[in-house]
Structures are given as C-alpha cells and as structure tokens.
Design brief:
By secondary structure, the chain is mainly α. It has one domain (20-94, 101-197). Helices cover 72% and strands 0% of the residues. The protein has helices at 2-13, 21-33, 37-47, 54-81, 108-123, 126-145, 151-190, 192-197. The longest helix has 40 residues, at 151-190. The N and C termini lie far apart (55 Å).
Length: 202
C-alpha cells in the first residue's frame, strides 16, 4: 500500500526529459544549495545580533544543534535498519542530479532542513519557522523532482525532525541551563581575541 502510494507520488512529481530546462536548473539549485542556510544562520545567530537578544539566540542555536544531532543519528539508524534503494538505483523514473546509490530513507537533506525549520517554529518565531518550512518543502520537492528521492523519504525526514525536536526539548528541560553556561565559557575562551576586538558578541 505505502509502496504503491510512494511510486504514484513519485511518478506525479518526477521531472522528465520534456520538463523545462529552467525548472530543472532551479530544482538543482534548491536541492544542492539551499541547505547551506542551516550553517550560515546557526553561526550568524551565535556570533552577532542585538545585545538584548544574544542569549535568546544562543539558546536557539544550542537546541537546534542538539535536535540536528539527534535527528541525524536516528536517520542513520533507520537507514541501516530499513534500507531502501533510491529511484534511479531501481531504474525508476528520471535522474537529473548525480548522487551515490546509497540508501534513501529517510532523506538526510530532508531530515536536516525539516529539523531546522521545526526548531525555528518551536523555539523562535512563527514567521521564521513558517518561512524555513516553505524552504524545507521546496528542498523536499526538488529532490523528488530530480529523481534522487522518493516522496516518503521526505516524509520520513519530517517525522525524524519532529522526533529530534521533541527529544531535544526534554534534554533541554533537564540540563539546558548548565549546558548553555558551559558552552558560553568555551566560546569566550576560544574567541577571546575577536570578542575583545568587538568583531563578535561577548
């Protein structure tokens, strides 16, 4: 039942040789490059921002990092436990993006970008979480459109991301304050010179 649905959705979304070249190129950009918003935002939120918001931003960064670590660990375990071939590895559909024929479920890209979006939705602002969720959906669409993932790979990434965020909230409630103080001490030691120069926030 699920495999039939997976195949039907894939056939509906997957590009073909008749698809517009500009749309395929746009999908390649979305599939490969939009994921870079994750490290850029994490670094920027930790290092810069209004003084009265820095603590809040760093709490968000730490929780997001924990959620990503948990989500990617769960994703790896699921991939090893329930291996699933990519569409092109099974000779199904059309592939427009070079990719190793490793296991596809759940999607690593989907896991990362959905975890990131959900983290902002839960712990930042509704508007930022919604904007990132739209980006996450675009990444999910692009990777199915280009033939490197099944639709249910992306649903798996979303569910694993949700699990990562929920688990992180439990961890944060237990030891978040102590972890924050420790990481701030490490940061101030390692970045003493840039902090003193005023290049980054204390």
């Amino acid at each position: 039942m699920m495999e039939t649905l997976n195949l039907s959705l894939f056939d509906l979304i997957n590009a073909t040789p008749a698809s517009p070249a500009w749309l395929i190129q746009a999908a390649i950009f979305i599939a490969k490059d939009l994921i870079h918003i994750v490290p850029v935002l994490i670094v920027a939120l930790w290092l810069w921002g209004p003084r009265h918001q820095v603590d809040y931003q760093r709490h968000l960064v730490i929780r997001t990092a924990i959620a990503l670590a948990i989500s990617m660990s769960v994703s790896w375990l699921l991939g090893q436990t329930f291996p699933h071939q990519r569409p092109f590895a099974e000779g199904i559909g059309y592939n427009f993006l070079h990719h190793a024929p490793d296991y596809s479920w759940p999607s690593d890209h989907g896991t990362v970008i959905f975890t990131f979006a959900l983290a902002f939705l839960f712990w930042h602002r509704l508007w930022s979480g919604a904007a990132l969720f739209i980006i996450a959906c675009a990444v999910a669409w692009s990777r199915v459109y280009l033939g490197v993932h099944w639709p249910l790979d992306m649903l798996g990434g979303l569910l694993v991301g949700l699990l990562g965020c929920l688990t992180t909230q439990i961890v944060w409630n237990l030891c978040g304050a102590a972890l924050y103080r420790f990481l701030c001490r490490v940061y101030r030691f390692c970045f003493a010179l840039p902090i003193r120069k005023g290049w980054v926030r204390d």
